[in-house]
Design goal:
With 284 residues, this protein is mainly alpha-helical. It has a domain of 159 residues. Helices cover 54% and strands 10% of the residues. It is built from ten helices and six strands; from the N terminus they run H-H-H-E-E-E-E-E-E-H-H-H-H-H-H-H. The strands form three sheets. It has a two-stranded antiparallel ribbon. Strands 3-4 form a two-stranded antiparallel ribbon. Helix 6 packs antiparallel against helix 7. The N terminus is likely disordered. Bound molecules: zinc ion. Zinc ion binds next to loops.
Length: 284
């Protein structure tokens, strides 16, 4: 189990956070120029060729709907961000990690989809289903905006159904990743960039605060992550929120834990350097 265990459900291979860290290193070491032929091939690739419509029956409204999924084993990981957001060659499969009912709006990350009590179904019907106007039919690939809508719906549903802090926090984290995906396609000086960045930071804040609560009262794994992996991610979220002391404490816990594998320890050491730089530049 690891942060990316839900990606396996989408058929994206068996990435653990450790493998991702290792892969990223290899890529940096290799430093090979992209092959021209390969680049030409990539231009011909269409995102819609890598996705398919999967059928679901909604546990809230009982209607059948389809949600888009990524075909198994088709796309390659290219690296990861400091908070372990994975990046892939050619497309961003993270866009497809929410299952959303087009009719009543019940949505969740794929890993949490469908596990509902009667009380939760009632809450979702009352607070969302009764007001929901439906999702439009989408031909082909999701845009980032389509994905952002679905992720925000999933965050909302996690709040309405009273999900555990771990689930709520993880859904916020994944939403921040989708927002970042879109933000990185925009001009840094545009108003939209700044707006998205603000939403992204809100999601990071909610994710961090939710994880703080989760580690105090939920058993590991939380959102499929072991303690070291989650604390590593939390250290990066705290750094981004300028909670430098909390970030340093979390990193110390990751670095001194016997359960932390050497690859995550290496990543934690790199993050510690980044934290030092942030602290220094903030003092200036
Ligand atoms: Zn439904």
């Amino acid at each position: 189990m690891g942060l990316f265990s839900d990606m396996e459900k989408l058929g994206l291979g068996h990435y653990s956070e450790a493998e991702i860290i290792e892969k990223n290193k290899n890529m940096r070491n290799a430093n090979v120029d992209p092959d021209v032929e390969q680049a030409a091939k990539q231009l011909e690739r269409k995102e819609e060729d890598y996705i398919f419509d999967k059928k679901y029956t909604c546990p809230v409204c009982d209607l059948g709907f389809t949600s888009k999924c990524v075909k198994s084993g088709k796309i390659k990981l290219s690296g990861h961000d400091t908070d372990l957001r994975p990046t892939y060659e050619f497309m961003d499969p993270l866009k497809y990690d929410v299952v959303a009912c087009a009719y009543c709006g019940y949505s969740s990350l794929t890993r949490y989809y469908g596990r509902l009590s009667m009380r939760q179904i009632k809450e979702l019907k009352m607070s969302i289903g009764n007001k929901f106007r439906g999702l439009p039919d989408i031909e082909g690939a999701y845009t980032y905006d389509d994905a952002i809508t679905r992720h925000k719906l999933a965050v909302l549903c996690s709040v309405v159904k009273g999900a555990k802090n771990g689930e709520r926090a993880y859904t916020c984290l994944k939403t921040s990743w989708i927002l970042r995906g879109k933000r990185l396609t925009l001009d840094e000086n545009s108003a939209e960039y700044k707006e998205i960045l603000k939403d992204e930071i809100d999601c990071i804040k909610n994710a961090y605060e939710g994880f703080v609560l989760a580690i105090s009262n939920e058993p590991f794994p939380i959102a499929g992550m072991d303690e070291s992996t989650l604390k590593y991610i939390m250290a990066d979220l705290a750094r981004k929120l300028k909670k430098y002391e909390e970030s340093a404490k979390l990193l110390a816990s990751v670095l001194t834990s016997k359960a932390t594998n050497h690859r995550l320890k290496d990543a934690a050491l790199e993050l510690k350097e980044l934290l030092k730089k942030d602290v220094a530049s903030d003092r200036r």
